[in-house]
User: What shape does this take?
Amino acid sequence: MTQSFKGRSLIAGDAAGVALLSRKAFTFAHGVDPSTGKVTDVHSDIRGENVKGKILFYPFGKGSTTASAWFLETARQGNLPAAVITEATDLSAVIGSTLARIVYGKGIPVASSFPKELYSSIANGKRVSLKGAAAELVVSD
Assistant: This one.
């Protein structure tokens, strides 16, 4: 079964991968090891998982704007997710992705504001693709 959802593109781009879903607030600052992409935040429900190449879902960001610098370092090391999908806009992910594009040519799509039904139908390991400025998210089994 395939489902399609429309959201709001914050940083446009195409991405595909498997879903990695956190139901808790998320941060890259002290939350992701930039050298590996592994989630290290002891409060995270996806601690021990790896964000590299995944479509990372979380409700909203937490912490300070330092998360943008950690996002940028994770980009430098080549361990970013394929895309970031949030319920509420996470400015740290938007700023981090913008800087990654400027500094390293590695822009990561960021989108938010999808219908609530998305978050009840998404699960870790599902195949997901995000399409450009339209922010169309397709979820497959």
